[in-house]
User: Fold these one by one.
Assistant:
Number 1:
Amino acid sequence: MIPSSFNRVHIDYDALRHNYVLLRKNAKESSFLAMVKADAYGHGMVECSRVLEANGCRIFGVAELREAVLLRQSGITSAIYSMIGFDHKDAGCFCEFDITPLAYDVPSLEALSRAAVKSGKNLSVHLKVDTGMNRLGVYLEGLQDLLDNVKRLPGLQLGGLASHFSCADDRESSSTSESLARFAEFQDIGSGESSLMYHIANSGGTLYFPESRCDMVRCGISLYGYYPEGRKNVEKEGLQPVMSFTTRVLQVKTVPAGSGVSYGHTYITERPTVLAVLPVGYEDGFSRRLSNCGEVLIRGKRAKIRGRVCMNLCMADVTDIDGVAAGDEVVVLGSMGKERITADEIAARIDTISYEVLCMIGNNNER
Ligand SMILES: *Cc1c(COP(=O)(O)O)cnc(C)c1O
C-alpha cells in the first residue's frame, strides 16, 4: 500500500450542487455549460462532472480535446465542448467520442470535414469569434468565409457562434456591452443560418450582465464557489466555496527571540516564539510568495507563516495559540471554527486570482 500524503484537498459536492442550482436559476431560459477545464479548476473533472450531470447538467466544456476524450471515457453522456482548438491529426476524435469542436479557421474546418466524412457522421461545429478579447477567434470580416466553408465542406453542420468576454468580472466596465454589441453584428451575419446557438457569457456575464446570457451561459469559477471579481467574505445566501485544503502539524518547537527562520533567515523572531512546522510547501501549491505573509488556521485560530515557504515545508507562528501539538489539523484553505481562509484571500496576498490558487492547490494534491 502506498501511504497517503499529510496534505489533502477536500471537495464539498453539496456546495457544488448548491452553486449549480443557484447559477442554473440565474441563467433562466438559457442552456448551461459547466466549465470543467483544468481538472475542474483543480476540483476533479470526472467527479465534479458526474455530480453535475446527476443534477441535470447536460453540457460540459473543457479546453483541450484530450480533456474532452478523457471526460467522455469516464462515462459522461452529455454534450462536451472542446474550447481551444486541436491538432488536425486528432480530428477523428470529435466523431469517435461525440465531442463538439470550436473552430476559428478554415484548415480546422477542413480537418473536421475529412474526419466526419471518414466516420460517416455529421459533425456539429461552433465557430469562435473575437468580440474584443483579442484571444482566439475570428473578427467580423472573417466570419462569412468560415460560414461559407462550413456550408461547402461535407459532413459539417453549423451549431453555433461563441465568443468570450474580457472584463465581465467588472460590473462598471463598458467593455462588456461593447463586446455584446459586436457579438450582435456577428449574429446578424449568422442570422441566415437556422437555429444557431449563441453563447458568450462566462460567470461574470451570467451574474452581472443578464442581457449577455443569450442561448447558453458557460460558468466556471462560480460553480466552484467564487465570484469572478474576488470577494472578501463568503455570504450565506451566495456561492459556497467547494474546495478546502488541510495538512497536519509535523513538529512544534520553541525558539528564542532573535532566531532566523527558514532559508535565508528572512524572518527574525522578535520574542520567544513557538513554531509549528507544516509539511506543505510550494510543491503543494502553497506559493513561495506566501513567505512571511501567508496565514493558516490551527485550533480555529489564524497563524502567520514565518520565513520562506520551502518546497515541502513551512513554519507557522503559534505562540499565541495554546496547546498546539504534532498531529493537529491545519487548514490552509477552508474554514475552522469561526475563521475561514478563501482562495480570494490567498490570491490577494500573492497578487493573483482565485482561479490560479484553486488550480495550484487542487491539481498538486491528493483529493
Ligand atoms: C474558462 C472559460 C469560461 C468560464 O469562465 P469563468 O470566469 O470561470 O466562469 C467560459 N468560456 C471560456 C471560453 C473559457 O475559457
Number 2:
Amino acid sequence: MNVILKNLQAVRASIAQITKAAGRAPEAVRLLAVSKTRPAEDVLTAALEGGQREFGENYAQEGVEKMEAVARHLPPGHPPLVWHFIGPLQANKTRIVAEHFDWLHSVERLKIAARLSAQRPAHLPPLQVCVQVNVSGEASKSGCAPEEALELCRAVVALPRLGLRGLMAIPAPEADFLAQRKPFARLRALMETLRGAGLALDTVSAGMSHDLAAAIHEGATLVRVGTAIFGERTNA
Ligand SMILES: *Cc1c(COP(=O)(O)O)cnc(C)c1O
C-alpha cells in the first residue's frame, strides 16, 4: 500500500485510540492533514484514496497553486476539499487567504482580522477563524497573550465576514508527555473562560505529530498532522 495511505490509517487509528483512552466521543477529534511543502499529488492520494477532506497550508501562494492543481484532478461530484491556512499571516497576504481559503487558524491581531473580513468575497461563506494564543510564555513568539484573548475574540466576532470558531496554539516543543499537556491545559482553561463570557466556540486547534496525545487528552477538537502522514519535510 502507498505509504501516505498507510500513515493516514495509522494516524486515524492512533487518534481513535487516544480519544477513547481520554474518555471522549469517537467523533470529537477531527484530523487536518498538513500538506505544506508537499506536491498536489500527495494531497490527491490522501483525498481520493484515503478519503481525507481537510488540508492545512502555511504559505499562501503555495497553498493556492496547490488547491487549484488539486481541483483540476478531482472527479466530478467529489465532495469539495476544505482548506485551512495555519501559518503566520502577513498583512500583504491577507487577500489571497480571504479569497481562497475556508479557514484561518492564526488570527493574533485585530488589524489582520479586519483586513480579512473586508477582503472576504461576498459569494463565499464567512472565513472560519481561530484566534492563536501563546500558551508557552516566553518560549514562543506567535499568538496573542492569553490575557488579550477575550478582547480580541469579541472584536473578531463583530467582524461581519469572519466566523469565530475557537482557539489555536502551537506550544514550544517538549519531549515529556506531562510537560506537553501543561500548555494545552492552559488553552482548555482559556476556552472555558471565553465560553463563560458568552462566546460560542466549538474548536480547539491543538496538537501536531509529536504532541497529538497530550493535545487530545486536554480537549483538542482538531489536530494538525503533517509529518506523521506525509513523512519528514526536506525543503522547509
Ligand atoms: C507544520 C505545521 C503542523 C504540522 O506539523 P508536523 O509536526 O509535521 O505534524 C501543524 N501546525 C502548524 C501550524 C504547522 O506549521
